[in-house]
Amino acid sequence: xxxxxxxxxxxxxxxxxxxxxxxxxxxxxxxxxxxxxxxxxxxxxxxxxxxxxxxxxxxxxxxxxxxxxxxxxxxxxxxxxxxxxxxxxxxxxxxxxxxxxxxxxxxxxxxxxxxxxxxxxxxxxxxxxxxxxxxxxxxxxxxxxxxxxxxxxxxxxxxxxxxxxxxxxxxxxxxxxxxxxxxxxxxxxxxxxxxxxxxxxxxxxxxxxxxxxxxxxxxxxxxxxxxxxxxxxxxxxxxxxxxxxxxxxxxxxxxxxxxxxxxxxxxxxxxxxxxxxxxxxxxxxxxxxxxxxxxxxxxxxxxx
Length: 304
Hints:
Blueprint: E1 2-7, H1 11-19, E2 26-29, E3 38-41, H2 43-49, E4 58-61, E5 79-81, H3 88-103, H4 106-115, E6 130-134, H5 138-149, E7 153-157, E8 169-171, H6 176-180, E9 185-188, H7 202-207, E10 213-216, H8 225-233, E11 239-242, E12 262-264, H9 274-289
Parallel strand pairs: 1-2, 1-3, 3-4, 4-5, 6-7, 6-9, 7-8, 9-10, 10-11, 11-12
Helix pairs in contact: 1-9, 3-5
């Protein structure tokens, strides 16, 4: 029997969905034990339980990001998988909800309604606009597909991979400013790694045209927050939407709260739903018992 420890805030919600699959040779345990081979849950809870799981063979994260488990001082003698394939649809709904809100001038029309003002102003459209994706993994690929649905042009900036056929043009390495030039929308879905720290800096923001909008649904470390505030205050770009921040929760005295043309949400762009995450675990468990490679394996060194 393979013993499974579910390490989430509401473990029973996940257990219900896993039990429906009637997986063979699987036994749930309620607390860390020496013979527990599998952990499924939040990376921070898995991290805190590692010392009590000496025979851990596989940990399945319910997050796409697994930063709590990447410290080189911690054990890395097990297979780590993440929820890489789960959040693309949810992220796309969030991003394109904001794109459409802006493009269709919904806020302006609501104000007109309050003022009882009839106005035939053009509401704009996404068709023909150019979106730039910082990162084209599973989430970026989903965004690219959605962009094509709206008739947009798609650019992608990656370390080197070019797996999404929906991206019209890829950029790598020192092509970052060329990638940003002329974009209507810049969307970051980059993970937190040493290579992504403050990649959205003054130079990148200055390369964007004044009408551009920046959206970050990846990780907060990607943004040079001071540079972004300067760009918004000086109207070098039109607006920004941030769902993630360098420090979370965002301190009450942080200037972002009053920065003009900045809309914030609070790490809620793509929430974790037990039924979606259980499907990833179930698929991987079937591979695990057959001794086959698991999907969405994390490279501890690269961080994703």
